[in-house]
């Protein structure tokens, strides 16, 4: 059997809608043998139509070892734009193993007429931007990054995340709600109105599933503290795309590592 006859082994680094959609496309294409990797943080991940592995690899070296041990031919990094460590690890591991890497990254949201965005480089800067005056804050940054807001308990928080936040979080009076996108514009308007939301805190995650909150904030004249994407240190070349179609094309064609 030549290299070209063999099924191409693909490792998708996931935890995102894009990774799931890509795996749904690839699972019906017999020339690809796909494994999707999850960090293992979400308590009940949605079902996936390909082989799933879960849990960290043990840094860039662990990921490189996995790639070699499993004969992985291509890696697609479809992790969330804020998952900077795994992105850097994927870059290092693929460079070390000379395995081609594609980053399937959501395009960031861009400010539209009527948007009031106050940008912040991270959670602590977002807290500073919120200011001292107590406000009613809709916090939609995921449960892992909430600790910074303990420094500003004067605000009244509505916190929405896929899984419930850590119980030890010192935010007395915060209201938690579990929710997994997509959310509709009508739902977001109603929620923000009902809670009297005065400011929204969001990561610039991009994508459609959670964009309705940004549109709702625009409609309700609610300012958005927009947390910008983190810098990712790359150790080698990677191809980048926003498109699942292009990711499928990239897999189907030969590329230099
Ligand atoms: P991170 O800070 O970049 O990664 C931390 C560590 O988690 C990595 O070093 C790696 O452990 C492990 N890891 C992350 N993604 C993995 C994957 N797909 N498969 C196996 N191990 C993985 O990542 P994070 O921000 O904590 O995000 C964790 C997961 O949640 C990612 O899969 C991401 O796509 C998803 N997610 C993140 C966000 C967010 O806002 N950050 C939002 C939605 C979904 P080792 O070093 O041991 O390999």
Notes on the structure:
This protein is an alpha/beta fold and 257 residues long. The protein is built from seven helices and twelve strands. The strands form two sheets. A six-stranded parallel sheet has the order 3-2-1-4-5-12, with helices on both faces. The model has no long low-confidence stretch (mean pLDDT 95). The structure holds NADP nicotinamide-adenine-dinucleotide phosphate.
Keywords:
single chain, 257 residues, 6-stranded parallel sheet, elongated, binds NADP nicotinamide-adenine-dinucleotide phosphate
Order of helices and strands: EHEEHEHEEHEEEHEHEEH
Net shape: elongated
Order of strands, widest sheet: 3-2-1-4-5-12
Distance between the termini: 22 Å
Helix content: 25-40%
Helix/sheet category: alpha/beta
> What ranges have pLDDT less than 50 throughout 5 or more consecutive residues?
none
What is the number of beta strands?
A: 12
Mean pLDDT over the full residue set: 95
Bound molecules: NADP nicotinamide-adenine-dinucleotide phosphate
């Amino acid at each position: 059997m030549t290299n070209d006859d063999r099924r191409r082994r693909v490792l998708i680094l996931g935890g995102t809608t894009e990774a799931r959609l890509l795996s749904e496309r690839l699972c019906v294409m017999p020339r690809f043998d796909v494994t999707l990797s999850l960090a293992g943080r979400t308590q009940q991940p949605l079902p996936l139509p390909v082989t799933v592995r879960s849990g960290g690899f043990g840094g860039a070296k662990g990921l490189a070892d996995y790639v070699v041990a499993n004969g992985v031919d291509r890696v697609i990094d479809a992790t969330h734009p804020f998952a900077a460590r795994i992105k850097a690890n994927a870059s290092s591991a693929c460079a070390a193993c000379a395995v081609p890497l594609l980053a399937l990254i959501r395009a960031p949201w861009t400010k539209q007429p009527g948007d009031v965005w106050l940008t912040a480089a991270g959670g602590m800067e977002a807290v500073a931007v919120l200011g001292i005056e107590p406000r009613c804050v809709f916090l939609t940054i995921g449960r892992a990054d909430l600790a910074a807001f303990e420094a500003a308990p004067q605000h009244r928080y509505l916190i929405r995340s896929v899984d419930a936040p850590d119980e030890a979080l010192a935010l007395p009076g915060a209201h938690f709600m579990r929710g997994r996108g997509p959310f509709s514009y009508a739902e977001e308007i109603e929620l923000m109105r009902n809670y009297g939301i005065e400011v929204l805190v969001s990561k610039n995650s991009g994508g459609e599933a959670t964009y309705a909150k940004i549109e709702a904030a625009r409609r309700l004249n609610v300012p958005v503290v927009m947390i910008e994407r983190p810098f990712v240190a790359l150790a080698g070349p990677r191809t980048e795309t926003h498109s699942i179609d292009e990711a499928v094309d990239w897999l189907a064609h030969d590329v230099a590592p």
